[in-house]
Amino acid sequence: IGRVCRKVARAITEGRTEPVVCTAARVREYLGPERFFSEVAERTEDPGVAVGLAWTPNGGDILFVESTRMAGKKSLTLTGSLGDVMKESAQAALSYIRSRADRLGIAPDFYENADLHVHVPAGAIPKDGPSAGVTIATSLASLLTGRPVRPNLAMTGEVTLRGKVLPVGGIKEKVLAARRAGVECVILPRRNEKDLEDIPEDVRRSLHFTFVETMDEVLDEALEHAAAERAGPAGEEAREERARREQHIARA
Q1: What is the model's pTM?
Q2: Are residues 85 and 185 in the same domain?
Q3: 127 an active-site residue?
Q4: pLDDT (tens digit, 9 = 90+) per residue, 75-85?
Q5: Any catalytic annotation for residue 95?
């Protein structure tokens, strides 16, 4: 805003007298080409990438969590300037995924001869807190099942070893960040539902919210169904189950 005002003030000192209307085209003229673009849909096309929501002193932001697997000896590497609490969240997320391997269709011994690497880009920016737990767990589940995360979906929440999703702070800032990034669906802890009262009505109406109590619910909502499931009879059951779940999606 300051840069636009300086441009207008300069035009006035140069003799411009007509009123200035800051249209979208005029703003681009003053500020130059766009520098930031929504990457949510493009970056979640491949399995192993999930989108989380973060709180910062300057407001909310989105963060990508990327996971990959390679041959190795049961090690977990965490990168991206992560603090101790976030590292512990990643450990808890991996333990949960290992405990649910059968349900997710993952080989129980997948970790015996493999190394896992979880990275949160923007490595120069320190990151910490427990609220990325569900995002890390979703990223790992997506990688190990080969099922991408649904496009334009983001999430936040702390996860326990038992797969419970706990409430987190900064919901207003996180939801506003999701809106700015072009996210369409947001997964939140059930106990954070009351925090939507602080969010402007137009923002609430522009997003779909799914409130969850367990990590199983997160994965059912976040992961795309496998191609075989979509094509066969099981796919029909999955679609019916998704339709039932969508009846509970809150569109404020």
Answers
A1: 0.78
A2: yes
A3: no
A4: 999 999 999 99
A5: no
The answer to whether residues 120 and 203 belong to one domain is yes
End-to-end CA distance of the chain: 31
SS3 of 69, please? strand
Number of domains in the chain: 2
pLDDT in tens, 84-95: 999 999 999 999
Which segments of the chain are extended strands (E)?
Answer: 49-56, 59-71, 76-79, 114-119, 153-155, 158-159, 165-166, 185-189, 208-212
Q: Are residues 81 and 31 in contact, defined by beta-carbon separation less than 8 angstroms?
A: no
What's the CATH code of the domain at 106?
Answer: 3.30.230.10
Tens digit of each residue's pLDDT (9 = 90 or more) over 16-75: 777 878 787 777 777 777 655 555 555 668 899 999 999 988 889 999 999 999 999 899
Give residue 178's domain range.
40-246
Instruction: From the candidates 127, 142, 172, 174, give the one annotated as an active-site residue.
Output: 174
Catalytic residue among 89, 131, 139, 142: 131
220: nearest Cα among 121, 147, 162? 147
